[in-house]
Structure formats: structure tokens, C-alpha cells
Amino acid sequence: MKYKIAIVGAGPAGYFTAQAFQRANNKEHSFSIDMIERLPTPWGLIRSGVAPDHPKIKTVSKVFEKIARENDFRLFANVELGKDVSLRDLREAYDIVVLATGSPKSKKLGIKGEDLLNCLPASSFVSWYNGHPDFSDLEIDFNCDTAIVIGAGNVAIDVARILVNDPSELERTDIAEHALKSLKSSSIRKVIVCGRRGPEHAAFTLSELRELPELDHVDVIFDNHQLNDATTRVDKLGVIEKDIRLNILAMKSIAESRKKGLKRNLEFRFLANPVEIRGSQKVEEVLFSSNEIAEGKIRPSGQYFSINSGLVVTAIGYESEDNLGLKVDGGRIVNIAGHVEHNVYVTGWAKRGPVGVIGTNKSDSADVVQLIIQNLKAPKNCAGIVSLLRSDHKVINQVGWDKINASEVIAGELSGKPRQKEVDWNRLINLGTIS
Ligand code: NAP
């Protein structure tokens, strides 16, 4: 029996879902897959989330391209669910719909001053430097000495590295041209990453921390007192996850290493809870309440301090969008093991919330596909997406994406980059639809 599957979202979770269906093809059931993507380009966070100085992570795109070349796989990019097609119609047009739409919105701090100019959520800043066509016009003022990044997770480290590193290090990456140009004229020489809890609570992964001493143009600074206090607290607790101990050791090794006296500094401060962002129109200062840890509990110490800064990026996690009429809870679409309602399933960040690295989506998507197969009924006579789109809708299919991809790679070759991204919606659509 043959089933028609719609996967919405051409990021890692979407491709790994397609791969799991392809691997499940057998004599009893086979699957034809239509992957639907809002942007004119596929690859999701691999293209617009992963930092440009992390090219190894991006090599998974080769796996995506292999999946896309299998039989019974079609790409429908430049098609937006909720605008060009409704979820209701899509459900009718397919046996199964899998939402792999991620958690695209940044969480808000909810404090005074968050809407001042030059206070940006990481989702905007990251999309901007990665050439996401919705963010290529974002105006950011880098004419200040110090930037603050709020949050102690991997996104905060990515953002801080891009802000503080010497832009010459980014010249041979796929960073968007407009971002490289702005970073070259940036006056920022100090970036302070602020976590509201202790070093032992930081969400950094070890590999991200271990990369920091390799930044040739940046002195990285951790407060040894804060790290010693964290070690004491961790020792008192006795059994504690190995990752936490290794993280603290990595931070301590950086704290104790000799500084090179460089002009570019990346500093980490813990127990710093932002309470207000101040400035007249534009960010000028962030007020923090100092936290303390007593009997394992975080509480305000009653002390405050402020840091002058002309740019603030909040990297405090992501949320799902609730524009499809589905229930959203924090960072995920409400689901049971991936099942949402009727023939609608969810996978990736949209399923479990914004946690986990790219590879986490592989096992997650395989589990969802297994559940879908268990729940399969007889196939319907489905019309598919073409019946739902206006006849003049400019779909970018795999051939169109191949053209965009080739054009970017060729443009990048001239300057020794893996690619030079096209960042304009109309030019992307033209490139992807010319015959
Ligand atoms: P994250 O890992 O959840 O970290 C969010 C940070 O924001 C935490 O330190 C959290 O502190 C803090 N935070 C949350 N609400 C806050 C508030 N109101 N005020 C101050 N701080 C607040 O999220 P992420 O950095 O966005 O990363 C998302 C996922 O992508 C993670 O699984 C991450 O590992 C992954 N990722 C991986 C890579 C890589 O592998 N290279 C790169 C980027 C992202 P609390 O703990 O106190 O809540």
C-alpha cells in the first residue's frame, strides 16, 4: 500500500523524518514524500542557525541532499503553511502530515527596556548573520565597545563568538556578506555573556567550551571565584552528572590559563539576573540583580550592578509559533509521543521543545515514524499539494534548489568560501524558478 506523506519544514528534523520513511519502505507499505518549506531554500537551521565558523556541523547537508534524491521525494519550497495552504486542507490532501517546523521565535525576557533599539533576540541576530532572507535588512549598531549576551547556552556562545572574534576569521565561511561587512567595521571589543544561575547550571556543552581557548584573537575570561564556589557546591551534592563536572573543569582551565593581553575579550559572568535594560531609545546599560545560591536554591542577594553596553542580544531559548490553531506549550506543539491530532504528527524542536543538537532529531524522527506506521490505516485517495496551490504559485522544487545551490557555491568559490549566500527573497525565487 502506498501512502502520501507531507512533511512541513525542510530542516534537520524534516529530512530525518523523510529518511526514516524511506528506510521503512517495504512490500507492505511504501511512502511518497512531499517536503513543504516556507523559505525558498531548504536545510533549516543548518543554513540559518548553525554558526558560520562551524562548517563541520553543516556537512550533514550532504545527507539531506542524498535523501532528496531518493525516489518518491519532492521539495515544495516557497510554500507557507497557514498562508499558501491551510493545515486543514493539507490534512485532507495527505494520508499523514508531519510538522517539523521547529521553534522559530525567541523567548522574551519580559523586562523593562527589552524593546529598546539594539536589544535583539538571538533568533534575529543569528538569522541576520546567516543570511536568512527575512532578516537581511535588520539594522544593528555595532558602534559601541561592549555587547552583552544574556543566557548561558550554546546559542549565547555562538552569538558571543561571532560578535567578539576578529572578522578575518569569518572571511572564508558562508557568513552573509552584509554581516561580514558590518562586523569588519564593528567597534565591539568586549562581549559579556551573563547567566542567571551558577556555572554548574550553565547549558553550554563541553565541545563549545573547549573551542574557546582556540580563539586566537580573543582572551576568554571566567571568574575563578565563581568557579571555585561552583566546585564546592557540586562536591557537597556528591553524585552529580559527569557533564557538569567536565564543564566546570573546562571553564577552570580557561580561567587559569595565561591571558594574551589581547584587545578582544569574551567574559562570562554567572549569578547575574537581568532586571532592566536602560537607555533613551537605544540600549545604554543593563541592570542586573546578583543572585546567590543557598541550600541549592537560587535567590536574589539584594545586591545590584549594572554594565554599560550599546548592544544586547538575548539568547534565552526559543518558542513554537501558535499560528496553526494547534495548542502550543512553551517551546513545543502539544503532542503525545509525536501525535498531535487526526493524521497530524510533529517532530524535532516542535515536538520536544528547543533542546538537543542536530543529531538528536534523527532518533526522535525515527521514533515518530515508527508510531505513524503503527497507527496507519488504509491509504486515502489523496490529491497532494499541487491541487491546493494557485496555478501561478512559484514553487521552488529540487531542480530549482539545485540551481540556487550551484549558483551560491560558484559565487563562493571565487573568494575561497564554501558558498556565498543569496539573501534576497525575490532573487532567490527568480534563481529557483527560471527554466
Ligand atoms: P538553552 O540551552 O536552553 O539555554 C538557554 C539559556 O538561557 C539558559 O542558560 C537559561 O538559564 C537562560 N535563560 C532562560 N530564560 C532566562 C531568563 N528569563 N533570564 C535569563 N536567562 C534565561 O537554549 P539555547 O542556547 O537557545 O540552545 C537551544 C538548543 O540548541 C540547545 O539544546 C543547544 O545545545 C542547541 N545548540 C547547539 C549548538 C551546538 O551544538 N554547537 C549550537 C547552538 C545551539 P536557566 O538554565 O537558568 O533557565
Number of helices: 15
**CATH topology title of the largest domain:** FAD/NAD(P)-binding domain
Average pLDDT: 95
Number of domain modules: 2
- State the CATH superfamily name of the largest domain: FAD/NAD(P)-binding domain
Poorly predicted ranges (pLDDT <50, ≥5 residues)? none
Please tell me the CATH architecture of the largest domain by its name. 3-Layer(bba) Sandwich
CATH top-level class of the largest domain: Alpha Beta
Please state how the strands of the largest beta sheet are arranged side by side.
3-2-1-4-19-18
**Which bin fits the share of residues in helices?**
25-40%
Indicate the radius of gyration in whole angstroms: 23 Å
Name the hetero compounds present: NADP nicotinamide-adenine-dinucleotide phosphate
**Class by SSE composition:** alpha/beta
Overall strand count: 19
The outline comes out as globular
Distance between the termini: 35 Å
Relative strand content: 15-25%
Largest sheet: number of strands, sense, barrel closure:
6 strands, mixed
Q: How do the strands and helices of this protein lay out in sequence?
A:
Layout: E1 2-8, H1 12-24, E2 30-37, H2 44-48, H3 55-58, H4 61-68, E3 73-77, H5 87-93, E4 96-99, E5 105-106, E6 119-121, H6 122-129, E7 146-150, H7 154-164, H8 177-184, E8 190-194, H9 206-211, E9 218-222, H10 224-237, H11 242-256, E10 264-269, E11 272-278, E12 285-294, E13 297-308, E14 311-314, E15 318-319, E16 328-329, E17 332-333, E18 339-341, E19 344-346, H12 349-352, H13 360-375, H14 398-413, H15 425-433
Parallel strand pairs: 1-2, 1-4, 2-3, 4-19, 6-14, 7-8, 7-14, 8-10, 9-10
Antiparallel strand pairs: 5-15, 11-12, 12-13, 16-17, 18-19
Helix pairs in contact: 1-13, 10-11, 14-15
The structure holds NADP nicotinamide-adenine-dinucleotide phosphate.
